[in-house]
Write a structure and sequence with these properties.
4 helices; 108 residues; mainly alpha; flat
Length: 108
């Protein structure tokens, strides 16, 4: 379970970086050369999703819970936005949903 969770967090980080870099280019006037590492990050994101043994729909559903947590951590660390109790509670609920789905992978 820990390995799967860490793999999901790495996957989410790749997806966020892959989307954040083009955002920097389009919204903040950063260099278009950022599209190269963005494409690499998104390719890594797709590859990491394939490393899970479950059916793709289950992987995507479970991944969504971790993505919510990772996006909120990104919001705090990178964007400097203070998270509310509701943010933390929502992240906890999403993470619990992921854990429930992953716990059932071998039983479905």
């Amino acid at each position: 379970m820990l390995k799967t969770t860490l793999l999901f967090f790495a996957t989410a980080l790749c997806e966020i970086v892959g989307c954040f870099l083009p955002w920097l280019w389009l919204k903040r006037g950063a260099t278009p050369l950022l599209l190269i590492p963005a494409a690499l990050a998104l390719a890594m994101f797709v590859w990491l999703l394939t490393l899970h043994p479950a059916a793709s729909g289950r992987v995507y559903a479970a991944y969504g819970g971790v993505y919510v947590c990772t996006a909120l951590i990104w919001l705090r660390v990178v964007d400097g936005v203070k998270l509310s109790v509701y943010d933390w509670l929502g992240a906890l609920i999403a993470l619990c949903g992921m854990l429930i789905i992953v716990a059932g992978w071998g039983r479905a």
